[in-house]
Design brief:
This is Hydrogenase maturation factor HypA. The chain is an alpha+beta fold. About 25% of the residues lie in helices and about 35% in strands. Helix 1 crosses helix 2 (about 40-50). The longest helix has 19 residues, at about 1-20. The structure holds zinc ion. Zinc ion binds near residues 73, 75, 76, 78 and 90.
Length: about 110
């Protein structure tokens, strides 16, 4: 399960951040997950419960902030939602755009101890 390796990486990074802050126990870790990051939030929550065992995050809560996938259209200088499944076509000026600005995020945005 690929979410397990992601959850393990999140736990390791959050432990490092907590240590740098002088905290040895994490209560909440918040991650930003893009719509196109290829991560299933339910699977990530499940994997997190496994990955956190025996770590500083043993009692921590995982908060997943979903980021809507949006692309930029140079033709009309506007952003648009690409949707899910993604459709890279500007609805305003009716032309193709592959310039994805948001939606591939997979990062820790906050660690609270
Ligand atoms: Zn456009």
């Amino acid at each position: 399960m690929h979410e397990l390796s992601i959850a393990t990486a999140i736990v390791e990074q959050a432990e490092e951040i907590a240590r740098a802050d002088g905290t040895d126990r994490v209560t909440t870790v918040t991650v930003r997950v893009g719509e196109l990051a290829g991560v299933v939030p339910d699977a990530l929550h499940f994997a997190f419960e496994v990955a956190r065992e025996g770590t500083a995050l043993a009692g921590a809560r995982l908060v997943v902030e979903q980021v809507t996938a949006r692309a930029w259209c140079g033709g009309c200088a506007a952003e648009f939602d690409v949707g899910m499944p993604p459709f890279f076509w500007c609805p305003s000026c009716d032309r193709a755009s592959q310039d994805l600005r948001y939606g591939r995020e997979l990062e820790i945005s906050a660690v609270e101890g």
